[in-house]
Amino acid sequence: MGMEINGTQGTQQRASQYTPVKIKEKETGKSFVINFLDAEITGNKNKWKIKDGKVYNADGKEIKNKELKLTKYQAALLKAAARGDGNGAYLDEKDLIGSGYGQLAAEELKRANSKFRLAKDTTNNPPLPFGDADAMEHGMIYANVENNKGEKGHLEIKLLDHYVTKEVYDIFKDLF
Q1: Which of 24, 46, 59, 116 is the most buried (most CB within 10 A)?
Q2: 25 pLDDT band (50/70/90 cuts)?
Q3: How high is the mean pLDDT of the chain?
Q4: Strands annotated E in the chain
Q5: DSSP class of residue 62?
Q6: Which of 119, 145, 146 has its CA nearest to residue 131?
Q7: What does pTM read for this prediction?
Q8: Does position 4 have pLDDT exceeding 50, yes or no?
Q9: Which residues neighbour 6 within 8 Å (Cβ) at sequence distance 6 or greater?
Q10: Is the pLDDT of residue 60 over 80?
Q11: What is each CA distance from 134 to 26, 35, 140, 143, 154, in whole angstroms?
C-alpha cells in the first residue's frame, strides 16, 4: 500500500497501484472516474473485480474500456465511498470512515435525485445514525437502500488488499 513518510502516505509511490475506472449511470449517461485500489464491487445481481490494473465482470471476463454501467443509486453510493477522506478521485483504505459514510451516501443519493434512500439500520443497537451504510476498518464499505415502492438495493465494496499489502506479501510469500 505504499510507505508512510512522517505519517503521510506517499501517493507518488502508490500511483501505479490505482486503476482508473469510469463509472457511468445507466439512466442518465453521466459519468465520472474513480481510481481504485484492488477491489471487488457487488451490486444486487452484478459483480465486478478490479485487480492489477484491470476490470473484470462477474464471469471473469476483462472489461477492456474499464467502464462500469451502474444504476443511479449505485453510482451515487460509489461516489460517496470515494469521498470518505475528502478526495473523491480515489477509493482506498483512507475512505474507511465508519458510519460517517452513511451521511455522505445520503447526500450523494439526494444530489443524484435518486428515488432510493438509505434503508433504516435494523441490525445495530443503537442504529447507525444515517441508515444502513458503513465503511468498516477491515476493508468493506456497504449500503442498503430502498424506495417508496418497497424495492430494495445493495452495494458492497471490498478492498482486496486492505489486510495484506503487496509489499508485505512479497516479503512473506516464500515463508509459507
Answers
A1: 116
A2: very high
A3: 86
A4: 4-5, 8-9, 19-25, 31-36, 39-43, 46-51, 54-56, 67-70, 90-91, 117-118, 133-136, 140-146, 152-159
A5: B
A6: 119
A7: 0.82
A8: no
A9: none
A10: yes
A11: 25, 20, 8, 7, 12
